[in-house]
Amino acid sequence: MLTQKPEKMEISNMDISSVSDGTYVGRADNGFVKAAVSVEVSDGKLKSITILEHDTLLGRPGEKIIDDIVEQQSLEVDAVSSATYSSDTIRKAVENALKKGE
Questions:
Q1: I need a labelling partner for 42 at 20 to 30 A (CA). Which of 5, 49, 60, 97 fits?
Q2: Cβ neighbours, 10 Å, residue 8
Q3: Which residues pair with 23 in a beta bridge?
Q4: What confidence score (pLDDT) does residue 87 get?
């Protein structure tokens, strides 16, 4: 396992104002880290993100990224130091959730 690398995730920023109001669930899996999130959108803004599942190596601190995403209303936030794979997987799960509301 030490010689393998997680799958690279391409994360696209989304225009949150174009997402319909609602609560959406998204999932992502990079081969090592899995995440599932619930995302609430209201009035064109991210209101909250809840982590439903996060199977991780040592990236539990990456869960803090949800606060940055909500605060900045953007997926273009810096990964949490020493939890890059978890941060990216969580961001991808949020993107996948938001796509359901387009």
A1: 60
A2: 8
A3: 40
A4: 93
Best CA proximity match to 74, nearest among 94, 60, 59: 94
Task: With CA atoms as reference, report the closest residue to 51 among 34, 63, 61, 42.
Answer: 63
Q: What 8-state DSSP symbol labels residue 21? A: S
Rounded CA separation 52/93 (Å): 11
Q: What helix, strand, coil percent values describe the chain, rounded to 5?
A: 30, 25, 40
pLDDT tens, residue by residue, 33-72: 999 999 999 999 999 999 999 998 776 889 999 999 999 9
Q: How far apart are CA 75 and CA 69, in angstroms?
A: 6
Alpha-carbon torsion 69, 78, 11, 6, what sign? negative
Going by the DSSP 8-state scheme, the letter that residue 79 receives in this structure is: P
Q: Which tokens sit at 69? A: 């995403």
Residue 39 falls in which region: left (phi positive, over 0), alpha (psi -120 to 50) or beta? beta
Across 91-100, average pLDDT: 97
